[in-house]
Design a protein that fits this description.
It is a single chain. With 124 residues, the protein is α+β, with helices and mostly antiparallel strands. The chain has one domain. Helix content is 21%, strand content 36%. The protein is built from two helices and seven strands; from the N terminus they run ββαββαβββ. Strands 1, 2, 3, 4, 5, 6 and 7 form a seven-stranded antiparallel β-sheet that branches.
Length: 124
């Protein structure tokens, strides 16, 4: 049997007020019913979102958290904030590692990118 782990990192930190940072951090901490594994660090007027506890699933973030992130993005005039998740197993088996990328949007929504392959396998 193997153990699978995952990590999360936003593509950038972003400036926000201490009050908004506190709201985002509080919303992440009160999302106890939803296991998402994402945390935030506020330093020097900037907030950074990350997850390194071994299990991360941004799809489990609450609407409150997403709306707070969207509010911060709107205040900066940014349409979105990219993020990535990587997962890996402690035993190298088929399909034991991978990842995905996505975006938080200023309207308080979130989207995970879909992989599209362009190679025509019928010609291989």
């Amino acid at each position: 049997m193997s153990n699978t782990y995952s990590v999360f990192a936003a593509h950038d930190s972003f400036k926000c007020s201490q009050e908004l940072a506190d709201r985002i951090i509080a919303s992440l901490e009160t999302d106890e019913d939803e296991l998402h594994g994402i945390r935030a660090e506020y330093n020097g007027g900037e907030l950074y979102l990350y997850g390194d506890d071994g299990y991360v699933d941004p799809n489990n973030l609450s609407d409150t958290t997403l709306k707070c992130i969207g509010e911060a993005l709107r205040a900066l005039g940014k349409p979105c904030l990219g993020w990535g998740v990587a997962w890996y197993s402690d035993k190298c088996r088929p399909a034991s590692c991978g990842g995905c990328t996505g975006r938080f949007y200023s309207d308080g929504s979130m989207e995970t990118a879909e992989a599209v392959f362009n190679h025509d396998l019928s010609k291989s």
